[in-house]
């Protein structure tokens, strides 16, 4: 039996499962492997998204505006988009990002500009662009807006 990896190993399990070392996520971008400034993992990103969604759905939409999400399902999405646009556009992070110790950074390391954040927000609301990502853990919404989510 050959010791060469079978083509199905790279197709089904990715090139890492075939023994090919691609480096750590963010290495191509010049980011460290661990600690502050490294690429944020999916656990932190999903945690931040869940926190932000709960704040927008139950905290703002229902408690402050008095609108039940079941009555008008688009209102929580619009509230989410507004808070995301304002907070990421001006501070680089939402409440969920802050609690999970991550932030959205422009590729130069600073806070992203408002127009790329608007594009990023629209793509994030579409969900699918956030699910398609590269080996640096950047979704289509990150690549399009020239941003990366990093640990603080």
TrEMBL record:
Keyword Transmembrane carried by entry: yes
Membrane topology note: Multi-pass membrane protein
Domain of life: Bacteria
Cross-referenced InterPro entries: Pra-immunoreactive, RDD, UCP021697
Coiled coil regions in record: none
UniProt subcellular location: Cell membrane
The keyword NADP is assigned to this record: no
Transmembrane residue ranges: 46-68, 74-93, 114-133
PANTHER family per the UniProt record, alphabetical: PROLINE-RICH ANTIGEN HOMOLOG, PROLINE-RICH ANTIGEN HOMOLOG-RELATED
Protein name per Swiss-Prot or TrEMBL: RDD family protein
Source organism of the structure: Nonomuraea longicatena
């Amino acid at each position: 039996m050959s010791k060469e990896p079978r083509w199905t190993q790279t197709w089904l399990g990715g090139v890492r499962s075939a023994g090919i070392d691609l480096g750590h996520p963010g290495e191509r971008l010049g980011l460290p492997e661990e600690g502050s400034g490294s690429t944020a993992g999916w656990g932190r990103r999903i945690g931040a998204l869940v926190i932000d969604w709960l704040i927008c759905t139950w905290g703002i939409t229902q408690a402050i505006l008095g609108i039940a999400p079941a009555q008008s399902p688009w209102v929580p999405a619009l509230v989410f988009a507004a808070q995301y646009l304002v907070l990421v556009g001006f501070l680089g992070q939402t409440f969920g990002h802050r609690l999970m110790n991550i932030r959205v950074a422009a590729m130069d390391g600073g806070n992203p500009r408002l127009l790329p954040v608007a594009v990023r927000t629209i793509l994030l609301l579409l969900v699918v662009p956030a699910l398609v990502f590269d080996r640096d853990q950047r979704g289509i919404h990150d690549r399009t807006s020239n941003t990366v989510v990093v640990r603080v």
